[in-house]
Amino acid sequence: MDHADQPPGWQISQVVELIDMPRRDITRSCYADRKRGGAGILQPLDGSWGRRNYSVEDIAWLYLVKLQHEAGYSLPEIAQRMDTSVGVDQLCAHLDTVANRAAEGLDELRLKVERARALRCALGAGSAGAHEAIERYLQDRLGASAVEELRRMLERLAPAEPGADTTFPASTHNASACEKVALNQGASDRARIRRILDEPGMDLAIELWAGPGAFDQLVKEYFK
Question: For residue 145, how many other CB atoms are within 10 A of its CB?
C-alpha cells in the first residue's frame, strides 16, 4: 500500500473512547520526558506534539499498558517491563495471551450464570413443573431440535428395569427407533451434540431435566 493510501490514524480523544484509557495516561505513556511525568513507553510514528495521531499498533500497545496499569503497575514500572520495539508478531502474541486469559475467565462466569439460571427455573416452577421449566430453558438455549435429539438419546439409554428412576422411561418401540437414528446419525450431528454437552452448566441443566446420571449417560454415548 502506498504511503498516501495509509489511514490518517486516530486522535487522542478517539483513543480515549476506543480503549477507555484516561487521556493523561495516554499522554504520559507516549511522552519521554520523565521530569515532566512522561514514561516513554512508546513513541507513535506521527509524534508531532499537539497533532499526534495513533496507529493500530500504537492503540494495541496502549491497550496493554492500560491492562497492566489496572493490574496495579505504575507507568514507570510498565516502561521497565514492556519492550515496544519487539515488533508486530510479538505484540500479537501478547494480545493472544490477554484474549486467552479473558476467555478462561468468561467461561467461569458463564458457568456461574447458567447454573444459577437453571436452578432458578427448577425452583421457580415448583416440583410439579420443574421438568417443563427446565425443558423450556434448554429449548431457549439450544433450540427445540437439539433438545429433541437429547430426549431421543436418553430414551434409548434409559434402564429397562420396571420402576427405574428416570424421567424418560424405556420403551421397546422407542428404543428400536432411536437405535436406528443413532446408527444413521452423521458425524456432524454427533459433533454438534458433543459441543452442546461441553457448554458451561449443561451438566446441571440436563440432570435437573432428565434426572440423576442422565448427563453421564450422554457423555459416555457421545464421547466413546
Answer: 10
